[in-house]
Design goal:
The complex is a heterodimer of chains A (176) and B (77). By secondary structure, chain A is an alpha/beta fold. Chain A is built from 8 helices and 4 strands. Chain A has a single domain, classed as Hypothetical Protein Ychn, Chain: A (3-Layer(aba) Sandwich), CATH 3.40.1260.10. In chain A, helix 3 runs parallel beside helix 6. The relative contact order of chain A is 0.20. Chain B has a single domain, classed as Translation Initiation Factor IF3 (2-Layer Sandwich). Chain B has a 4-stranded mixed β-sheet, with helices on one face. In chain B, strand 3 and strand 4 form a beta hairpin. The longest helix of chain B has 13 residues. The chains are: A alpha/beta (176), B alpha+beta (77).
Amino acid sequence: MAVQEAELAVPVHEHEEHPKHQKLVIIAWSGDLDKVWPQMILATTGAAMGMQTTLFFTFWGLFSLVKSEKHITGENWMQRMVAMMDRPGMEHLKLGKMNFAGAGPVMMKKLAKEHNVASPGELLEMARDLGVNLVPCQMTMDLLGLKREDMIDGLGEPVGATTMLMEAQDAITLFI
Amino acid sequence: MNMQIARTLDLKGLSCPLPIVKTAQAMRELGSGELVEALATDPGAVADFRAWCTSTKNELVEQTEADGVYRFVIRKK
């Protein structure tokens, strides 16, 4: 652990010479638990560092913004089938690898609890508290037939790719 | 120098990014120049607190370690 820390430690003086990036834009594209977790970790950390932080939720990334108690979302049969096959909501995310019909996520969450690692849901709550902009993609909402009442509170107005790329122009941009 | 601690944060046992995130949350309630004491056990917190103080311009006044507990004293910008 100590060796790893020494190798990973960033020389602090380098930050002082390059203070330019004060904005962080994360394109949250994946709805896999293994990717939503770092989305939330980096967003809360960016905001804690005083960076103006935006999470743009698009495609499967939008699943983590759907209320976990929602069973079926969508307006037509195909949208509803998609929600049935792949239930949205932060509590129902699957692992991209080693999901094993839900056993994988259960074990990961248990390990996380034992090691005092905050869950993605807890981190999302902290992100909201720290003023992270949580912005849903309008196109994906239409595609999946998601309505505002299907989704958690505290979200920004749904926008499109242009708005997000404008926001990203002078920001560190991550695609996760 | 006046070293009165305004608030102590017990971050022992917490993993990344919680020590930093919880410190940032707590800092909002402090006034400029006030001192916060953060106690953490995550070895990664040593580099993280240094980087965080550099980027937020809060001053890392003191950093010590005893029995596996890292203690950071930070003065709010």
